[in-house]
Write a structure and sequence with these properties.
Length: 169
């Protein structure tokens, strides 16, 4: 009987811990405050909407710019995936390739307005794509970045320069 009484406080403690204590499990709005901007192909780009969240050791950031004056595209989307980085520094942006592992991944997508497929570009390092983080914590990050992203067949590319992220999530 005394062994059973020992487990009662442990069970009560486990019951009292709710899923709300763990931000990873919460269903919530992932809107971030701050800004995400840069130049794509020498034209100014800024996110009208920013979403960001941290799940385990990965930070996901999505910036969406609405395109009103184009019949071909409705929006452009800039995505970052930051993996296992907990301190400031300069990191290459790229996709894992044989012999190389990148901790920052980026993509740029033009969302089609019609039946044509979206245009998606993926950043590869190529001695150029760099993410320089000056602040990172559980509430947000600040960074500058530049990258070149390529279409799946490598026949088309976009050049993103003067990129800045300053967000809280």
């Amino acid at each position: 009987m005394s062994k059973f009484l020992y487990w009662i406080p442990v069970i009560l403690l486990l019951i009292s811990c709710s899923k709300e204590d763990n931000p990873i499990n919460r269903e919530e709005d992932h809107t971030a405050t701050g800004f995400l901007r840069g130049n794509v192909e020498n034209a100014s780009w800024f996110a009208d909407e920013i979403q960001a969240y941290k799940q385990s050791s990965i930070i996901y950031i999505t910036g969406t710019q609405k395109i009103d004056n184009s019949s071909a595209y409705t929006s452009s989307i800039l995505n970052f995936k930051i993996i296992n980085i907990s301190q400031t520094g300069t990191f290459g942006i790229g996709e894992d390739e044989p012999g190389f592992k990148y901790f920052v991944k980026a993509s740029y997508t033009l969302k089609s307005a019609g039946a044509a497929p979206d245009k998606k570009y993926t950043a590869y390092y190529r001695d150029y794509s760099v993410f320089d983080m000056s602040r990172i914590d559980d509430k947000g990050l600040d960074a500058t970045f530049i990258f070149v992203a390529y279409s799946k067949d490598f026949l088309d590319s976009v050049n993103f320069t003067s990129g800045v992220i300053k967000i809280d999530y």
